[in-house]
Amino acid sequence: MMARLTSAGRFCSALIAGLLICGPAFAEDFAIAVSPPRFELTAKPGETVRAVAELSNRSGSPTELTFATADWDLTPDGGVVLSEALRPDSCRPWVAIERRQTVLPGQTQLRYRFEVTPPLGAPATECRFAIVVSGGEERIAPAENVDVPVRGQIALIVYVAVGGVKPDLEIVKADVVDLNGALTPVLMVQNTGTAHGRLSAFLSGTDASGIKREFSPSTLPILPGETRMIALHPDVSGDAIEAQIAGSSAGDDEASVEIVYPLTVSGTISDSNKSFRFEGVFEP
Question: Which homologous superfamily does the CATH classification assign to the domain defined by 13-162?
Fold first, then answer.
């Protein structure tokens, strides 16, 4: 069962980058930043791997903080759903965190330590968990005419590769979908490996109007055993900039050039395991 990591009566979700803020009433008061927002570590069974995150309180007031580990799932749109319930295959029993509670003065930093010790005989696996940092004080926020207690939170995402696990990414489909009102080229990427992977690419494309663009893939992770939609984001440059200038009216600084499909894209795509050549045609 998915559980709230606070006593709040509202469920919270996070971006994979680590952001987890619950409640508009708390947005101005909870000003905690974590660096880095994500750890990707390696460990051997029977050995301990240690890491340090830096927390910064950007507000001028002291903030009471509590810390807990959580399991998580990745949603189709790239959000993280947290669960405080210990799953049967959870690696959280391997995790030790420095403290459960502290007060961080305003405009100060805290080095927060944690460690992971896979037991001897642990199978090859990717250990995934989150360290959830919560504000100590609940606030009341109105939601549909009901006062709901909420609490500011931020989640630090941790991956630990145990036993040499690796991703194995394969593009299974090139498609065009409507994302936020814009037709966007996307790749459906399957991971048949044993660890998460991310696409890194240098892609160039030409649309039906002859405009050339460079594209970069979303850095969302593809977890083992899943197929995930990865958007290709255009970098406005070259021919696209010239077309944009030519098509802009006076004072229209935000004019954009729509992609005219079909779009032909090619280039080299890499993950942490291999590189391969990609050529594809995107058409709605």
Answer: Immunoglobulins (2.60.40.10)
